[in-house]
Amino acid sequence: MSMNEAKERAAQEMAYCNAILAKSNSGILHKILPAHGLVTWKHYPEKDVYDPVSGAQWYYHCHDNAELDAEHGHFHCFVRPDGKDSEPCHLIAVGVDAHGRLKRLFTVNQWVVGGKWYDAETTNQYLERFNVELADPDFLVNRWLTAVLSRYSDEIIRLNIERDAYLASLKRPALDIMADRTIEILSTFEIAS
Fold this sequence. Notes:
The chain is α+β, with helices and mostly antiparallel strands.
């Protein structure tokens, strides 16, 4: 299968997941968030989703200013390269609106998500391993998120390269930058509606 065919298939999978959820009067966020009592900064689901076969991991959360922004919250997507006990590598954050529609993809500084910091080349090598094939918390959400990372793999690769270029442009020690809480988002790709 060519790269273009793979991207088209991923786009179809995203559309299929959304269509099934809509037909069921549901949506991506309905499947993972509580009906009442949403708590900002809390991970949803409470225990991050982790696929032991691929090492893929994700969680969703929203910030205090979610209602002011078009973005409700975002999925943080990782791969644990050497299994559950290894440090996670943050691949990308996937921002969505209150209806679960894609808004943007972005990279974050190391202090935001913790884990081990990998350069863009290494991070991008792990991207194809992001595949969540689990029934919980919801099979369609897992398939949709897997498809998002596949469909937008070129953009994610570019964002990780831009992330590293931005950090290098700051001309400060890497450890200092990665702990600097005034530097949060490093690169962004807005998704047209």
